């Protein structure tokens, strides 16, 4: 008399054969894989929204420091009015930054003896930077 041993998983309500077990395991593994990929993609998308080169405002600050004073000086040489020259150039810089998706607000805080004091607020929607500057026109 021989006794045969069979691998059986007990599930309430009945027995399951080997093929059923494999199908169940394959389904569970596929579910875990889909879940892992979905979470990974969602995580990558969220990271992309909150980091990267777009949130580095230092190139824009460097551009403003390098190009705003000469532009104001050129406009001042043309108009001989510091306040008007500054406002004209500031509006142009604000428009150009807006065209590229950045918010730039350049506000005059004072004009006296050819010296213009101003503040710049620069933002990309996540980071905001405010700087106070002084520009002396010759």
Provide an overview of this structure.
The chain contains 3 helices and 5 strands, in the order E-E-H-H-H-E-E-E. The chain is rod-shaped. The strands form 2 sheets. Strands 3-4-5 form a 3-stranded antiparallel sheet, covered by helices on one side. Strands 1-2 form a two-stranded antiparallel ribbon. The model has no long low-confidence stretch (mean pLDDT 83). The protein has 138 residues and is α+β, with helices and mostly antiparallel strands. The relative contact order is 0.10. The chain is 53% helix and 25% strand. Helix 2 runs antiparallel to helix 3 (82-99). It folds into 2 domains: 9-50; 55-136. A hairpin with a 2-residue loop joins strand 3 (103-112) and strand 4.
Provide key terms for this protein.
138 residues; alpha+beta; 2 domains; three-stranded antiparallel β-sheet; two-stranded antiparallel sheet; 3 helices; 25% strand; rod-shaped
How many strand elements? 5
- Strand fraction: 15-25%
Q: Enumerate the strands of the largest sheet in spatial order, edge to edge or round the barrel.
A: 3-4-5
What count of structural domains? Answer: 2
Topology:
Blueprint: E1 9-11, E2 14-16, H1 18-50, H2 58-79, H3 82-99, E3 103-112, E4 115-123, E5 128-136
Antiparallel strand pairs: 1-2, 3-4, 4-5
Q: Summarize this, please?
A:
Helix content is 53%, strand content 25%. The chain contains three helices and five strands.
